[in-house]
Amino acid sequence: MEDFKYLGTTLKNQNYIQEEITSRMKSVNACFHSVQNLFSSSLLSKHLKKKIYKTILCPVVLYGREIWSLTLREERRLRVFENMVLRRIFGPKRDEVTGEWRKLHSKELSDLCSSPSIVRVIKSKRVRWARYVTRMGERRVVYRVLVGKPDGKRPLGRHRRKWEDNNKKFFRKWEVGVWTGSSWLRIGTGGGQL
Questions:
Q1: What is the pTM of this model?
Q2: What is the span of the domain harbouring residue 24?
Q3: Is residue 26 assigned to a domain?
């Protein structure tokens, strides 16, 4: 089979995650349009609207996020969606000089939201899951899949970024240490916080 759906996630034989993210985005957009009247309502507080976003919309888009290897394009798509919802929650802002209404900028939205961005949540959950798997030990199949190297030749052209590469990049940014080989696996067995 080229692809199949398992526990709500589409698995492909070529390990492309773009279609899964597209499917998630379609689902969350449908969910957003079903509750958008709540975000426009002046009867609900902004705090309550943020709770609706975190409890109804975020789980739809973030299901199965631990296995995602995001490209910059996919990170941008997720940020655009998140900013669209936050703009609906917080509404426009009145310019003090001209008196005209304008959309909130991305930086203003992140300051108002006071919670980590959706991309940051995905990255931290992915690394948390990697740490969990590395503590399982060599006897477990999940661990062997994580550290295993498939046989065969790679196709010509630029290699796709792997899940492991994303984890290494994340650890390089937020941790300290020497980064050679599988040193991120050794960090995974430690108890440090992100």
A1: 0.71
A2: 3-124
A3: yes
